[in-house]
Structure formats: C-alpha cells, structure tokens
Specification:
105 residues, de novo design (two linked rop proteins), YqcC-like_sf, YqcC-like_dom, UCP006257, 0% strand, globular, YqcC-like domain-containing protein
Length: 105
C-alpha cells in the first residue's frame, strides 16, 4: 500500500486548499456531512468535501493500515468544478497524481 506517498499528497492537498483560500474554518453541519450523494454535491462544495470527508477518511484508513480505495477519480470532478479557474490548475494536477497513485497500487 502506498501509505507514505498518500500521506504526502494529502498534506500537499491541504496546503494547496489553504493557499487557494478554499480551506474552511467552520465545519459543515452534521446534516450536510451526512449526504449520500457523490462528493456530497447536494450539500457541500467540492473543496468542503475534500476537507471534511475525503481527507479525514483517508487519514483514518492510513492510521489503521486499512486498504486504500483503488478506484478513485477526483481530478475529473475538480476539472468539472474548477475547470475555468486557471489558478486552481495545480490543485487539479495534484488530485490527478493522487488518482493515479491509488488506481495503480
């Protein structure tokens, strides 16, 4: 399992979200976090989903040495959500690297 590389990418993801002012200081409500829609798209912005659902879940999987997801596709969602924002291109590339790492494990 590529735990070390995944931890490094998650740390980079957090940094990039902060650099791009997409990191929230206020947590969404429990109801918003309970969404069952893909990426919680009905209750959260994509960056909120990354911060409050994806990063914590991946961190827990790594801490417990549990299997990491092998079918992951974050970059296409980032392109859909942020595609017209050139300043977020590096963030989208980072998600593509994470996709490739986990899909190729």
């Amino acid at each position: 399992m590529p735990y070390i590389q995944t931890v490094q990418l998650l740390e980079s993801l957090e940094q990039q979200l902060k650099i791009n002012h997409l990191w929230s200081i206020q947590s969404p409500s429990d109801a918003e976090l309970a969404s069952v829609a893909p990426f919680a798209c009905d209750t959260l912005r994509f960056e909120q989903w990354l911060q409050f659902i994806f990063i914590p879940k991946m961190s827990m999987l790594i801490r417990t040495q549990s299997p990491l997801p092998s079918k992951i596709s974050l970059a296409p969602m980032a392109e859909r959500v942020w595609g017209n924002r050139a300043e977020l291109a590096e963030l989208t590339k980072l998600l593509a690297v994470l996709d490739n790492l986990l899909t190729g494990q």
